[in-house]
Amino acid sequence: MNLIVTVSLECEVCKKRNYRFKINKDKKDKKLKLKKFCKYCKAHTMHVQVR
Fold first, then answer.
1. What are the distances in angstroms from CA 3 to CA 6, 30, 42, 46?
2. Domain range annotation of the chain
3. Who is most buried in 1, 9, 34, 51, counting CB within 10 A?
4. Beta-carbon-side half-sphere exposure of residue 29 (alpha carbons within 13 Å)
């Protein structure tokens, strides 16, 4: 059985939630951390996974 959940990515600078992803919790044990564009900061910043 696949355990697919929707998670949000939160900007580390302004703490806004900008992106949503669907991930398989069985295969992913670490938090997702990506460098993405934040439309509120108007810059590329690190985004971390939150629920």
1. 10, 15, 34, 26
2. 4-50
3. 9
4. 0
| 5 vs 17: CA distance, rounded Å | 16
Under 8 Å between Cβ of 50 and 9: yes
Q: Characterize the bridge pairing of strands 17-24 and 33-38.
A: unpaired
pLDDT in tens, 25-42: 887 778 889 999 999 999
CATH topology of domain 4-50: Rubrerythrin, domain 2 (2.20.28)
Q: State the pairing for strand pair 17-24/43-50.
A: unpaired
CB 11 within 8 A of CB 35: no
Q: What is the pTM assigned to this prediction?
A: 0.81
